[in-house]
Design a protein that fits this description.
single chain, about 425 residues, mainly alpha, Growth Hormone, Chain: A, 2 domains, 15 helices
Length: about 425
């Protein structure tokens, strides 16, 4: 790791271990920064090397000359070489008070709970195989961005990841105390909810990443204004989840809500796939964010409720953890995969074209469009999961009526 890499990552080390998708963001940014740095030092400019300089803000910088590489830090306003400021070091610390509050609350509350006489058992083989499997898959997608899909490292990592995940499933079938009991996943409603949450995370993290680039780099938003630009989506999620979800879930069930929510979110992505160099936030971006938020609220309220509904008390903890795990895994894969697909689209657009400012700007938009279309496809996949995997309300009502009522399973919200 170079001194520059250390300066960038140092503020994020530790806290970001709590969120793998954030590490994916940092990793993706570092790869772009290292590319820009190497070319600004005089390396040959190749499409793979300077594709991340396709920023409309470059119009404000002097054109490249034989003594000034096409890719320079002045051509990338968000990625200029400068020391890590105290403000950037404090960004990840915004979560620190929340983490302290959670730790203190856990110590005060859990310390009073009676301890079980049986010593808990750890599933070491399962932990190692599932962790190594997901790491290999995420790294394989990330490596495809810097190398290619045909790279030996990319193929090896993806194949190894799949093999390790298959091994994890086999381990869970044989160990006495599995990390993730398969009975938790094999329930159609619960498994469908897990899969829906993973696909939602793939789409969401891609939107957050590339829409942030678009707002700040292309439209010239400040960091604060960009954060405020996402607030309407947060408000629509809250409204949809708390008001619409609470009323619709007992009546129509999770199948209809996940299906409709996925389709509405996919429709919300359509305006984002048509953004241009001078698109307006209110006319193009805002409608998409609001529609996507309404769909996400329906998905969240249905999936979170269904993921833990009817699970055995001994499996309640692992079922809840599995929901969060699916979000983290989906976010990590989404960031790596969509970054790779966007980079491939930019490289493809630049091939055979003269690298003028306008061409680089259009290549940047092409990368955004591909990422947003992929996110829309992920939302459509969520709708398909809801329509084909999750049971309908009538079937769920019949199963609920036949279920035991001895208190072994926690009651759901509906």
């Amino acid at each position: 790791m170079t001194e520059f890499d250390a300066n960038v990552t140092r503020p994020w080390v530790g806290l970001d271990r709590l969120s793998p998708p954030r590490l994916s963001y940092v990793s993706a940014s570092l790869r772009r920064m290292r590319t820009l740095s190497s070319l600004s030092d005089g390396s040959d400019a190749s499409p793979d090397g300077w594709l991340w300089s396709v920023l409309p803000e470059a119009e404000k910088s002097p054109p490249p000359t034989p003594t000034r590489p096409v890719l320079d830090w002045s051509w990338s306003p968000l990625l200029r070489r400068r020391p890590c400021s105290p403000g950037s070091a404090l960004v990840p610390c915004t979560n620190f008070p929340i983490a302290v509050f959670g730790v203190v609350g856990a110590l005060l509350y859990l310390g009073k709970q009676p301890r079980s006489a049986e010593r808990p058992h750890l599933d070491i083989p399962g932990t190692l195989t599932v962790t190594a499997g997901w790491v290999a898959i995420v790294y394989g997608f990330s490596n495809a961005e810097s190398n290619s899909w045909g790279s030996a490292v990319t193929i090896s990592c993806l194949v190894a990841g799949v093999v390790l995940l298959v091994a994890f499933v086999l381990v869970q079938q044989r160990v006495a105390h599995p990390l993730l009991p398969l009975r938790v996943l094999l329930d159609r409603d619960r498994g469908g909810s897990f899969l829906a949450m993973a696909l939602v995370a793939i789409a969401m993290f891609g939107v957050f990443l590339f829409l942030t680039y678009y707002l700040q780099v292309t439209l010239g938003f400040t960091a604060l204004r960009t954060g405020l630009a996402f607030l309407p989506m947060s408000a629509s999620i809250m409204f949809s989840a708390t008001v619409l979800g609470a009323r619709l879930l007992p009546r129509v069930g999770p199948k209809a809500m996940i299906t409709v929510g996925g389709l509405v979110s996919a429709l919300g992505m359509v305006p984002l796939t048509r953004i241009g160099l001078h698109s307006g936030y209110v006319s193009v971006v805002l409608p998409g964010l609001v529609a996507m938020g309404l769909g996400l609220g329906l998905i969240f309220s249905a999936a979170f409720s269904t993921a833990t509904l009817g699970v055995q008390r001994g499996d309640a903890g692992v079922a809840s953890a599995a929901v969060n795990t699916m979000q983290q895994v989906g976010g990590s894969i989404g960031t790596a995969l969509l970054s790779t697909l966007s980079a491939s689209a930019i490289t493809s657009y630049l091939t055979g074209r003269i690298p003028s400012v306008q061409v680089r700007a259009m290549a940047s938009l092409q990368g955004y469009h591909v990422a947003f279309w992929c996110s829309a496809g992920a939302f459509v996949a969520v709708a398909l999961v809801g329509a084909t995997v999750v049971r309908g309300q009538r079937a769920r009502t019949s199963l609920t009526a036949q279920a035991p009522t001895d208190g072994d399973a926690p009651r759901g919200l509906h």
